[in-house]
Amino acid sequence: MQALGPNDPAARPGFKAYKVLGSRFELPEHYEIIDPVGSGAYGVVVAAKDKSEQSENNLVAIKKIEKAFEHKIFALRTLRELKIMRLLNHDNVLSVKSILKPESLEKFDQIYVVTELMETDLSQIIKSNQPLTD
User: Fold this and answer.
1) Which domain holds residue 118?
2) Domain for residue 52, yes or no?
3) What are the φ/ψ torsions at residue 126 (nearest 5 degrees)?
């Protein structure tokens, strides 16, 4: 991970730019990227600290969905996922803390989704040897 910093000429005022796993993240200054979490077909996920929250649990995950509107099916899939995440309220389901606003409609081709940061994901739990309960 490379912090490009507030002096990056391409960064908006009040934003910080980072290069993570080959993807450029441009986030409000109150988010500080700690580590990459992973990448997949739709984008990159990072662990970050939300410095605007005064609580001890100010760690978040930020998922950057790149080229969100390139294909209609991907856009509909993303919309469905966000609607479901917004409506569900359960300890075992990630909740959306926020969706970062784009700079403008003309530049709206990526989505940043901020969620709580989990220690692991469902795939890792299923693959592990730990017993699962109903």
Assistant:
1) 2-127
2) yes
3) -65, -40
- Cα 47 from Cα 98, distance rounded (Å): 15
Tokens of 55: 């609580």
> Across the strands, what pairs with 100?
112
Task: Look up residue 72 and give its DSSP letter.
Answer: H
Tens of pLDDT, residues 17-53: 888 888 889 999 999 999 998 888 778 999 999 998 7
Amino acid at 88: L
- Chain centre distance of CA 70: 19
Residue labelled with tokens 């988010």: 31
Six token digits for residue 88: 């569900």
Domain count, the chain: 1
Biggest CA pair distance of the chain = 52
Please state the pTM of the whole predicted model.
0.81
